[in-house]
Amino acid sequence: MHPSTPDPVPLFALGRAELAAFVAGIGEPRYRAAQVWRWLYRGFADGFAAMTDLPGDLRDRLEASARLHTLAEAARTDNPDGLATKLLFRLRDGQLIETVLMHYTDPADDPAAAAPIPRGRHTVCLSTQAGCAMGCVFCATGQMGLVRNLDQGECVEQLVWCARLLASADEHLTNVVFMGMGEPLANWEATWGTVRTLVDPDGFGLSPRRITISTVGIVPGIDRLARTGLPVRLAVSLHAPDDALRGALVAVNATYGIEAILAACRRYQAAGGRRITFEYVLIDGVNDHPAQAARLAHRLRGIGAHVNLIPLNPTAGSDLRPSPYARAVAFEAELRRAGLGTTLRMRRGIEIQAGCGQLRSRMVDGRIGRTIPPSVPTLNPEAS
Ligand code: SAH
Ligand code: SF4
Predict the structure, then answer these.
(1) Cα 156 to middle of ligand 1, angstroms
(2) 35, 162: one domain
(3) 112-125 pLDDT, tens per residue?
(4) Does residue 126 share a domain with residue 52?
(5) The domain that contains 15 carries what CATH number?
(6) Which ranges constitute the DSSP H helices of the chain?
(7) Which of 203, 264, 274, 364 could be stapled to 41 by a disulfide with Cβ–Cβ 3.0 to 4.6 Å?
(8) Are 57 and 136 in a shared domain?
(9) Longest dimension (CA), the chain
């Protein structure tokens, strides 16, 4: 390309109004923008040539001035049970990010028999950052530190990639969770732009209720989410009932402690009244004592809360272990006794290293040093 030629515009990075402005800028009428938008998010066209109802000269001009793909598939792994597909993408600057496509089938269907993609609900778990600055000691992404934010196009394209896979089996995307690599509320613009594209009725057309943003507890981000007025679901990763322990597990707790986070959750509910999911990674002998469950339940009193319990998926960067099953069940029972709704999460995708950031870790094996202390102080009353 000639050095003075402007870089092609990445179309997945544009919202609907921006796409309209871009199309107007190349001298095309407004309805062409609507056509292109539908090709991107309804037709999942994999190139301009596939946009068959556009005039040939427009396709040529799009080819010259715009770009669709900025992600390249670096690896794909299917879970042996057929219920999850893990995609590893290489970004244009070489960074690797992960996206997981999970399938939830009707119990009457045999997913293995229905391979490659079973019928049912399909949830994409997408990444919003390469790495993460929040410093959760148990998290493979946190162990990398933050490399950079993904832009909106890189976020949206993960969804398009999965939607295309599903379309090839006559299935479609039904749910999206911002639970891959990175902290979505530390990358607000890209996260929110992606949500807007997802809920656009002429695009994915997803209900906001089928979108979940998971955060480590970025208080200004929770407030901002409340102000949008869109009933997107909120998940908050708590992991501990008190600041002493949470501070040892989650570095950013020094900035946004539990009380500040729970106050933001109350404001969020006052603004829209939606139930919040609290995520709690169960770590053997660290945060899994029944007394800690009771304390957690006490602190969540007055908040419409559901607790998702996730047995830790061990990472190379720490010696922490998952709670044994019986202990996880006892922890859950204590929460239920206190009246909380709970889910002890299935370890979906774990067989393909689909825990946050883990496929990437394996790919770059050796490059991730043990920069995080391998253990945290044990504040478990039973163990001390
Ligand atoms: N940064 C956001 C979203 C991405 S992490 C957040 O922290 O909420 C998504 C979820 O995966 C979080 O609840 C996180 O605590 C959990 N997680 C991270 N590493 C994990 C591990 N090794 N095992 C189990 N869950 C993990
Ligand atoms: Fe970041 Fe979430 Fe991992 Fe914590 S758990 S380091 S916030 S991605």
Answers:
(1) 21
(2) no
(3) 555 567 888 999 99
(4) no
(5) 1.10.150.530
(6) 16-25, 30-41, 56-65, 152-167, 188-199, 219-228, 243-249, 258-272, 290-299, 325-337, 358-363
(7) 203
(8) no
(9) 73
With residue 283 as reference, give the H or E element that holds it: none
Does some domain include residue 108?
Answer: no
Ligand 2 site-directed mutation target among 141, 149, 177, most atoms within 8 Å of CB: 141
Contacts of 154 (CB under 8 A, 6+ apart): 12, 13, 70, 71, 91, 97, 190
Report helix, strand and coil shares of the chain as percent, to nearest 5.
35, 20, 45
Instruction: State whether the beta carbon of 180 lies less than 6 angstroms from ligand 2.
Output: no
Phi, psi of 169, deg, nearest 5? -110, 20
Q: Bigger pLDDT: 112 or 162?
A: 162
Q: How confident is the model at residue 6 (pLDDT cuts 50, 70, 90)?
A: confident
Distance in Å, CA 185 to ligand 1 centroid:
14
CB of residue 132 inside a 6 A radius of ligand 2:
yes
Q: Of the residues 185, 356, 368, 371, which should be mutated to test ligand 2's pocket, given the most ligand atoms within 8 Å of the CB?
A: 356
Q: Are residues 129 and 54 in the same domain?
A: no
Is residue 101 assigned to a domain? no
242 and 151 assigned to the same domain:
yes
The Å distance, Cα 310 to ligand 1 centre, comes to: 9
The ligand placed nearest to the CA atom of residue 372 is 2
49 lies in the same domain as 166: no
The response to whether residue 215 sits with its C-beta less than 6 Å from ligand 1 reads yes
What residues act catalytically? 98, 356
258-272 helix and 219-228 helix, angle to the nearest 10 degrees: 0
Same domain, yes or no: 250 and 316: yes
Q: Determine if ligand 2 sits within 6 Å of the CB of residue 142.
A: yes
Indicate the number of domains in the chain. 2
Ligand 1 center to 283 CA (angstroms): 13
The answer to whether 234 and 277 have CB atoms below 8 angstroms apart is yes
Instruction: State which of 127, 310, 358 you would mutate to test the pocket of ligand 1, scoring each by most atoms of that ligand within 8 A of its C-beta.
Output: 310
**pLDDT score, position 378:** 29
| 135 and 48 in a common domain | no
Which range marks the domain in which residue 244 is found? 122-365
What are the pLDDT digits (tens) for 276-313? 999 999 999 999 999 999 999 999 999 999 999 999 99
36 domain residue, yes or no: yes
